[in-house]
Design goal:
The complex is a heterodimer.
Chain A: E1 2-8, E2 14-16, E3 22-27, E4 30-35, E5 41-46, E6 53-56, E7 62-67, E8 72-77, E9 84-88, E10 96-99, E11 105-109, E12 115-120, E13 126-130, E14 139-141, E15 147-154, E16 157-164, E17 169-175, E18 181-186, E19 192-197, E20 204-208, E21 213-217, E22 226-231, E23 237-242, E24 246-251, E25 257-262, E26 266-267, E27 273-280, H1 287-296, E28 304-309, E29 314-315, E30 332-337, E31 343-348, E32 354-359, E33 364-370, E34 377-380, E35 387-390, E36 395-400, E37 403-408, E38 419-422, E39 428-432, E40 436-441
Parallel strand pairs in A: 27-33
Antiparallel strand pairs in A: 1-40, 2-3, 3-4, 4-5, 6-7, 7-8, 8-9, 10-11, 11-12, 12-13, 14-15, 15-16, 16-17, 18-19, 19-20, 20-21, 22-23, 23-24, 24-25, 26-29, 27-28, 30-31, 31-32, 32-33, 34-35, 35-36, 36-37, 38-39, 39-40
Chain B: H1 2-22, H2 33-44, H3 56-70, H4 88-211, E1 217-220, H5 237-290, H6 296-318, H7 323-401, H8 405-472, H9 477-488, H10 495-504, H11 512-517, H12 521-525, H13 527-551, E2 559-560, H14 566-602, H15 607-622, H16 628-642, H17 647-650
Helix pairs in contact in B: 1-3, 2-3, 6-7, 13-14, 14-16
């Protein structure tokens, strides 16, 4: 494992181009594009104000920089550095800006979700989509980039509009049977749209591309419902995490529940392995380690930690949520399938230090990773069943079916990993600190061994 | 009473006597009651006695009658016709008889009395028990009433609880209705708010459009081509239709793929089903043959069914594409199969139940048989014991009777013969070993002698050389000589006493204490390869990390969990342990070398020693170095570990010390 130098960044704005060749970072009002293999600066663009959002176009040719405060969007071309484009949303304001899948249109959401403006870079044309709903995930493009599903709210009713991304032709428009639609997500094969209600009601609706209601799923009533929804990359499973600390897996044929994963505070499942992060202070080194430490130079790191396999049963620390607060810190908020759909990683919010990995073939708990502090970010390797996570300290944690490891990031000063992103090849991870970033290169050769 | 009886008897006497005379005693023909009655009446009527002079015969007859009634055959006869005197013998006999009867009666009476007492006591007992039972009854009655009371209370409680439940339910319903009303109210309010918000939004957008102070605009240097290189098309109905068709195409494609997957899965399932069917038939078939006797009719039916199924199978295969038919047949066949299987299982269950019963029956029997068996065994054991005893006795007898010494010895030997043979074998083995030992000892002594000789020659050589040198070199003879001897012994610490020792007492070297004491010897015996190995091994631990450290500047691995392979860990630990042990040896050798170095430093600048030193230093220079810190830590560790065994620190007991001062040795 190798680590690069530390670079500056701001607002966690750091993205690898979709083709994996370039790395774009924003430092205040500057946009820096680097070659990922050499980390040399290729281009440097200066925006009009501090950038609040940055995004690569799908063909890796353009970079969008949005300055929400000013209601401005600037687009930069990698091939033609002198080409520029500036979109001014005017006094109507801007809260969200994104590329369309073809990389030639920009969708800007105005303040108060008044409308969505679609700007075409080809024809300079502008079109509006009215009544977008302000919700958790109100807009989603299908994986192949053909269709866009948009949640709308008209006359106190929820609607879903399906657009063809090519020419923004409205393909379907239908009302959904939701009280207050909270989000929608296309299945990876782009044929089924999952729509879920707000947390007040447990309701997941599945619509076909042509707007037919395929199925409705409701696990229980009254208490708080869906917290997170995720499709497996094979479109075979739909995982629903809810406030009752359970994950329910639906199948793609009957849309019925196959299995229900619970997150108990005491793990006594003998088939599961529990790895616990243990702090190892250099002061308490045994004789055996002393020799090792002298050669390694123990002065480099202050605290080390490692995973230890815990004998069952294991008690996982649980934080009781405050009952009189809104949005209680309870329930499954993170659901992530590995790229081969073999594993599912979950995080229960009232056990923030633990990450649960479920085996989707055996439909059972595989591993629990317990850490000393709350888990911030969990990401799967886009190629292999390998999980990277960070807990807001200076360590990177990796899990694979073979075992797990915690790695100290060898950066000067305090580099606390707040978030991380995988490179699309799975060979490196970008670690994002508060205002710094660092690349971590995985050992690529061990895969061949 | 007696009187009354007597009179009574007297009054009734004639009637009874007359009757008895007629009916009961026909044998007493000699009695003449006709005149005896008036006689007795006449003689005793006055004094009212039973017998008077007058009525002797009457009384006699009366007595006879009485006796006859009592069942006594004897009768009193008057000795004379008038009957004044009686014949003594019969009278006495009757008297005796009467007395006997009386006694018997008395006895019976006594018994009766006893019986009555007993009865009385039992009656009392019964009465007591009766009263006790009555008490119990009362108690139980009381208890019963208590229970009734508690039951009543419980029922009351249940009632109250039920009412509570009812109220709770009502409460719940009320609350639910409240919730529902609130929810509806909330949703209504939310809707109102939303409408307001929508209105506001509308107004806002209107205002923004109207004001146009800051125009929203796009400023592009030159517009781009589409990513697919095509030109955009006009929005027409045709286009929308094409979009529709596109959408349906994708949908169809999805359905196609899912259908294909389903078909594949279906085929797999069918295969599995077929296999299961086959196996089921296979399982069922042999059983049918085996139990053909009892369930012949059933079997035939089943066979018919299976035949049908086979037909169904073939037909199904033929009509595989026509779903409906196939499904129906499939379902039918499965149902039939299932029914068959269920029957079979039920039968099996029954059989097993019967079997179980049999088993249980058997289980009761074995206990008895077991006991029988035990008894038999005991008997057998007893028999055997007796047999043995008899044999022993016989033997003893034989010994006693024909007391021949030889036979006795033979008999005695009989017991120990085997043992003797075994001992002989062991003896042989032992002797062989002894021989081997002797041989080895001889070899050892020879070797020791040879060694002594070599040492002697070496000493001589040295003396000659020293002399030579002494004659040639500086006048500081003593010192140089000392140093040279030191130089000679540079290779070993203990070479000086060893030489002395070996020269003086070559044979002592065999003693085990010596061999154990000179443990560092093996490391010295192969110095060159082992030292290099030592360094290699010493370097081995940090090797990986060091190299990686140098190769990749920023590589740092804080920890790894070895993928849940404790064996590997333990293996590694074992290896590490082994390596550490090795290191200890090498380190000891190293330490010694250092010590010798310092000695050499202090010794004089003799040429040969210098040469040797140079050689040694070159050799040592060629050796790969370790960091002093590391070596120091290792040495320290080693020293601390072996401090207890160090004779310099703990001392050597004189009994085990092979180097204790010799009396004879005086070196001049």
């Amino acid at each position: 494992m190798n680590f690069s130098e530390v670079f500056k960044q701001s607002n966690h704005l750091c993205k690898v181009s979709p083709d994996g060749k370039y790395l774009a970072t924003c430092v205040q009002y500057r946009l820096v594009v680097r070659d990922l293999s050499t980390l040399q600066i290729l281009q440097l663009y200066t925006c009009l104000d501090q950038v609040s959002h940055m995004e690569w176009s799908s063909d890796s040719l353009f970079i969008l920089c949005a300055m929400y405060k000013r209601g401005l969007v600037q687009v930069w071309s990698l091939e033609q550095p002198d080409w520029h484009c500036k979109i001014d949303e005017g006094s109507i304001g801007l809260v969200s800006s994104r590329w369309s899948p073809d990389g030639r249109h920009i969708l800007n959401t105005t303040e108060f979700h008044l409308r969505i403006t679609v700007w075409s870079l080809c024809t300079k044309a502008v079109s509006y989509i009215k009544y977008p709903k302000a919700c958790q995930k109100g807009i989603d493009f299908s994986r192949d980039g053909c269709y866009m599903a948009l949640a709308e709210r008209r006359d106190c009713k929820d609607y879903v509009s399906i657009f063809v991304c090519d020419d923004w032709h409205l393909l379907r428009h239908f009302e959904t049977e939701t009280q207050d639609l909270a989000g929608l997500e296309w299945s990876p094969n782009g044929c089924v749209l999952a729509v879920w209600d707000s947390c007040l009601e447990y309701k997941v609706l599945l619509y076909s591309l042509d707007g037919r209601l395929l199925s409705t799923y409701c696990a229980y009533e009254w208490s708080l419902g869906v917290k997170s929804v995720s499709w497996s990359p094979s479109s075979q499973f739909l995982a629903i995490g809810s406030y009752d600390e359970k994950v329910r897996i639906l199948n793609n044929i009957t849309w019925k529940k196959i299995v229900q994963f619970e997150h108990p505070a005491t793990i006594d499942n003998t088939k599961a392995i529990v790895y616990k992060e243990v702090d190892r202070r250099p002061a308490v080194v045994s004789d055996e380690l002393s020799l090792h430490n002298i050669t390694m130079g123990s002065t480099l790191f202050s605290t080390q930690s490692k995973y230890e396999i815990c004998p069952l049963p294991v008690q996982i620390p649980v934080v009781k949520p405050e009952p009189d607060r809104a949005n209680p810190k309870i329930g499954v908020s993170v659901l992530a399938f590995s790229s081969d759909s073999r594993y599912l990683a979950t995080k229960n919010d009232n056990m923030a230090t633990a990450v649960w990995v479920w085996d989707m073939q055996k439909m059972s708990l595989d591993t629990v990773l317990e850490h000393t502090s709350a888990v911030r970010c969990v990401m799967w390797d886009p190629r292999r069943p390998r999980l990277a996570l960070c807990t807001g300290n200076s360590k990177l944690y990796l899990w694979s079916p073979g075992g797990c490891v915690s790695v100290q990031v060898p950066a000067e000063g305090s580099f606390q990993v707040q978030s991380l992103k995988w490179h699309c090849s799975g060979d490196s991870v970008i670690l994002l600190g508060k205002d710094q970033l660092c690349l971590c290169y995985m050992d690529t050769d061990y895969e061949e061994k | 009473m007696g009187e009354w009886r007597a009179t009574n008897a007297y009054m009734e006497g004639p009637d009874i006597s007359s009757i008895s005379h007629v009916t009961l005693s026909p044998s007493r023909h000699n009695h003449v009651p006709g005149y005896s009655l008036p006689l007795s009446r006449s003689s005793y009527s006055v004094i009212s006695a039973f017998c008077t002079e007058d009525n002797v015969p009457q009384s006699i007859s009366y007595l006879n009658q009485e006796l006859a009634v009592l069942g006594l055959s004897m009768c009193i006869e008057a000795s004379s016709a008038e009957g004044a005197s009686l014949k003594a013998v019969p009278v006495l006999n009757t008297m005796y008889e009467l007395l006997q009867i009386n006694k018997r009666n008395m006895c019976a009476l006594e018994e009766m009395e006893k019986e009555q007492l007993k009865k009385l006591s039992t009656l009392e007992h019964i009465q007591i028990s009766n009263s006790r039972l009555k008490d119990q009854l009362e108690l139980s009655m009381r208890e019963k009433s208590g229970l009734h009371e508690t039951e009543r209370q419980l029922q009351l409680k249940i009632k109250t609880l039920q009412s509570c439940l009812k109220t709770e339910k009502e409460e719940v319903q009320k609350l639910q209705s409240i919730i529902a009303s609130r929810a509806s109210q909330y949703s209504h309010d939310a809707k109102r708010k939303e409408r307001e918000a929508a209105k506001l939004k509308e107004r806002l957008s209107q205002l923004l459009v109207d004001r146009k102070e800051r125009k929203l605009a796009i400023d592009v240097l030159n517009s781009l081509g589409r990513s697919d290189g095509k030109r955009s098309m006009w929005k027409t109905a045709k286009l929308s239709a094409s979009h529709e068709s596109e959408m349906y195409k994708t949908l169809l494609g999805d359905y196609e793929t899912s259908r294909k997957a389903l078909i594949l899965e279906n085929a797999e399932l069918k295969k599995v089903l077929q296999q299961m069917k086959k196996e089921m038939m296979h399982i069922l078939a042999p059983r049918q043959q085996s139990t053909s006797g009892a369930t012949a009719a059933d079997d035939s039916q089943e066979q018919v069914e299976s035949d049908e199924e086979k037909a169904g199978n073939t037909s199904r295969e033929a009509f595989d594409h026509s779903c409906e038919l196939a499904r129906e047949q499939l379902l039918n066949s499965i149902r039939q199969q299932w029914r068959k299987l269920r029957n079979h299982v039920e039968k099996l269950d029954q059989v097993s139940q019967v079997h179980n019963q049999m088993e249980s029956n058997k289980e009761t029997i074995p206990l008895e048989t077991h006991e029988d068996e035990m008894e038999r065994m005991r008997q057998e054991v007893q028999q055997c014991r007796e047999f043995i005893h008899a044999q022993q006795q016989l033997l003893q007898q034989q010994l006693n009777t024909s007391f021949d010494d030889e036979t006795a010895a033979l008999l005695n030997d009989c017991y120990t013969l085997e043992e003797k043979e075994r001992l002989k074998e062991e003896w042989k083995l032992f002797e062989e070993q002894k021989k081997n030992f002797e041989k080895e000892r001889k070899n050892f002594t020879e070797a020791a002698i040879r060694l002594g000789r070599e040492k002697m020659s070496f000493e001589e050589d040295r003396a000659a050389w020293l002399k030579n040198h002494f004659l040639n070199a500086t006048p500081f003879a003593n010192r140089r000589r000392y140093s040279s001897s030191d130089g000679q012994s540079a290779l070993s610490v203990r070479s000086e006493p060893e030489v002395r020792m070996s020269s003086a007492k070559a044979k002592r070297s065999k003693s085990p204490t010596y061999t154990t004491f000179s443990t560092p010897k093996p490391s010295r015996s192969s110095p060159v390869p082992s030292t290099t190995e030592l360094y290699r091994t010493l370097r081995l631990l940090p090797d990986g990390s060091c190299s990686k450290h140098s190769n990749r500047g920023r590589w740092l691995e804080t920890s790894t969990v070895e993928e849940g392979h404790p064996q590997i860990k333990s293996n590694l630990q074992a290896r590490a342990e082994h390596r550490r042990r090795k290191n200890r040896y090498y380190r000891s050798a190293l330490g010694k070398r250092k010590r010798t170095n310092t000695q050499r430093m202090s010794s004089s600048s003799n040429l040969t020693t210098m040469k040797k030193a140079v050689q040694q230093l070159r050799f040592e220079a060629s050796i790969n170095r370790v960091k002093v810190s590391q070596a120091a830590v290792d040495l320290q560790q080693f020293c601390l570990q072996n401090a207890l065994q160090d004779p310099l620190l703990t001392g050597v007991s004189s009994s085990t010390n092979p180097f204790r001062p010799q009396k004879v040795c005086s070196f001049l």
